[in-house]
Amino acid sequence: MLSREQASAMLSLQAEMNHRIDPGWVAAAYPYLRAVIVEGAEAIEHHGWKWWKKQERDTAQLQMELVDIWHFLLSEVLLREGGDQKRALASLMRLLNSKTAVEEIEFDGRAWRLDRLDLLEKLELLIGLCANRRVDLAVFGSILRDCDMNWLDLYRQYVGKNVLNMFRQNHGYKEGHYQKFWSGREDNEYLSEILAASDPEQPGYRELIYSELASRYPA
């Protein structure tokens, strides 16, 4: 389970990124749950759902889609609290503490037993809930487990992706002079190495990742 400090760090990162994209993001009230619906459908594609052809589940891509979904769920929690990070943190912790142990979801006039659903059915349920403006972390947490992830894995990947995005922006990505390849290797490869060698539970995890990226980036 996420600690309060980890949840706070992710909300801070998400609010910062939302503000960079649009300083008026709270007033704009973007449809973040609609984005979850789209990302959920993309996750279904990476799983494979066509019964008329052979398909292989791509777990790595599924995990990436879950990190993207988490961006939008965090944004929705923040938006519902008017962008106030303290209130959003309290709301997120309530959702985490009260929902993640639930194994039965009431929705659309029936009870959905998570232990009786496969991954595709859970993704469909997540999409349906979001279409009805519901944020349910019991379903999301169950999907994480089915994709070979836990909450700490999500934290590691989420923070890594956000820090890299911010690092790119701070080094001229928008202006077009950021170097995505360092000594013949893509920046994502350096990030993967840093994440593998770092403890996500240590204090200042976000700052450590940024500092490690900066130490490797060509002057």
Keywords:
mainly alpha; globular; 2 domains; two-stranded antiparallel sheet; all-alpha NTP pyrophosphatase fold; 219 residues; two-stranded antiparallel ribbon; 64% helix
What does this structure look like?
It is a single chain. This protein is 64% helix and 5% strand. The strands form two sheets. The protein has a two-stranded antiparallel ribbon. Strands 3-4 form a two-stranded antiparallel ribbon. Helix 1 packs across helix 5 (85-99). It is globular. It starts with a helix and ends with a helix. With 219 residues, it is mainly alpha-helical. A hairpin with a 2-residue loop joins strand 3 and strand 4 (185-186). It has helices spanning 4-21, 25-28, 32-47, 59-80, 85-99, 119-131, 137-146, 151-170, 187-197, 205-216; strands spanning 104-107, 110-113, 181-182, 185-186. It folds into two domains: 4-149, Type II deoxyuridine triphosphatase (all-alpha NTP pyrophosphatase fold), CATH 1.10.4010.10; 152-216.
From the alpha-carbon coordinates, what is the Rg to the nearest angstrom? 18 Å
Low-pLDDT parts are: none
- The total strand number stands at 4
Which of globular, elongated, flat, extended, rod-shaped describes the shape? Answer: globular
Q: Mean pLDDT, nearest integer?
A: 92
CATH class of the largest domain: Mainly Alpha
Helix content: 55-70%
- CATH architecture of the largest domain, by name, is Orthogonal Bundle
**Which class best fits the helix and strand makeup?**
mainly alpha
Tell me the β content: 5-15%
CATH-defined topology of the largest domain: all-alpha NTP pyrophosphatase fold
Task: Describe the sheet with the most strands.
Answer: 2 strands, antiparallel
Write out the strand line-up for the largest beta sheet, numbering strands in chain order: 1-2
N-to-C terminal Cα separation, in Å? 39 Å
Which H/E pattern describes the elements? HHHHHEEHHHEEHH
Number of helices: 10
